[in-house]
Amino acid sequence: MNDAPHLLAEDRPDFERLLDAALRDDTLRTVLRAPGAPPSDDLRAHALASADRVAAPAATEYQHYLRLRENLRATPPAPGEPTAPGLLTQLRSENGGAGLLPVLTVLTPILAWTAALVLLLLGYALRAADPDSPLARSLLTAGWLALAAGVAAMAVGIVGLILTALRDGSAPPTVPFPPGTDPELAAELDDARRDWQRALRERALVPHLTAAARAGSAPALTGPDDS
Predict the structure, then answer these.
(1) Whole-structure pTM over 0.90, yes or no?
(2) Is residue 196 part of a domain?
């Protein structure tokens, strides 16, 4: 497709991210395990070198996405309209952003360990004065329980941070919009971007890489881009 638009530099990260996802496709991984199949690193390098031609089957969606993006950038902000960054920040806050849970994740171990320290100090002090004191035993038991609760809370917090990092790392980055952007235009652009990414993966990357892997080499990917 000679009329396919040139893949802009700002869209290369999306292409590379989707390329890595396509290389993990189950069908392609099965083909790559066959004898004589090229290494996945070779397919990736060739696809990056010929990104324009590889992405050509998704040219229609890409052109629509570029047109909306240019129109949005050329549209002056309407006075009184809520800004898109504020809208996106609100959505992120409502869907797992910084809120009460992360604060509790940080504070719970600190509070538990502080309580454990106080209870253990009091318990051992009372036991030193009266080894048979039931209050000392109760304080020591409570102190060790508080210490264990703090360790458990810290473990839960670490697991939560890991899961959040994995979720954020696998999610596509949001498009930054200038202040004053019409939220409806921003949403339309986001939809167009997702349509292009879906077409890029399903109609371009996965079929192209699978065909190259089945051929036992990557001849279709070795040439330079047609700019």
Answers:
(1) no
(2) yes
